[in-house]
Sequence to fold (345 residues):
Amino acid sequence: MTSRPLRVFSGMQPTGNLHLGNYLGAMLNWVKMQDTHECIYCVVDMHAITLWQEPKELTQAILDVTAAYLACGLDPKKSVIFNQSQVPEHAELQWILSCVGRMGWLNRMTQFKDKAGKDKEAASVGLFIYPVLMAADILAYRATHVPVGEDQKQHLELARDIAIKFNNDYKDAIAHKGFAAEFLVPPEPFITGPATRVMSLRDGTKKMSKSDPSDLSRLNLTDDADTIARKVRKAKTDPEPLPSERAGLKTRPEADNLVGIYAALADEPVETVLAQYGGGQFSGFKNALADLAVARLAPIGGEIARLKADPRHIMGVLADGAARARSIAAPVVREARAVVGFLVS
Fold:
């Protein structure tokens, strides 16, 4: 069997400010993986236009999200950092994979139903087929692992199904060309971290989201210290004291969320947090959480502002990353073209 490098691929859309949920649920793990895996991190701007974007705002958002990547600790010397639209192999491989994937598979994608709402006939074709583009994003690099949240697991399973079907459909051509039988690598999900699902500060039953109309529902990575502290202190709670045992959080979503955020930011188990603050009122705990959140997040916001003031540097990082990404993806897509029978000069 051909040995494959442990290669990670992941990305975020440049729509809205990145927030605490992105940081705890994804970014912390991305930063750690740089020391253990070959990492490719993408600003998935092609995915963003499945819903209409104001062009000037999208251009700025690509730079802003890249600044957030760098401010959080992604290192362009350790990882490949680029924006998707600069690497045309993503779109080319998507078309090939669209002819391998099945309509029935896409019809089962729950995120399309959630985003399209009741009037799915008015949704863009891109919104319907973007899971195939996500598969191409991953498979073009033969990524072995993809850090994903629970809401993206279904899309990763689709990428695996497409890879397996492609390898089976074209197994004779793959063998004839002398390529490895596992030509496209079925990726494995990588779900870890202390707070993989951070909830809204205003409703502990809803995921923290940059699309929530209330800015008080989230801690943006661009928020300053005063804003962070104010949002934490205004976070919804219940009238009961904090429990001393983890079981006491089960029916208290807001308490569970805030304790989980504290544990993640402090890099401590939930049990340790409850041992320290259990039995006390929320006011004291929220003051401590506000101080901790300011200490961890305010420096990131300051670094984002510094980087955004130098857009040429950010564009240089993306251009260099795109060149490195193409050096990996182009040979894979070229081989895929040969496998399906296209003329390859």
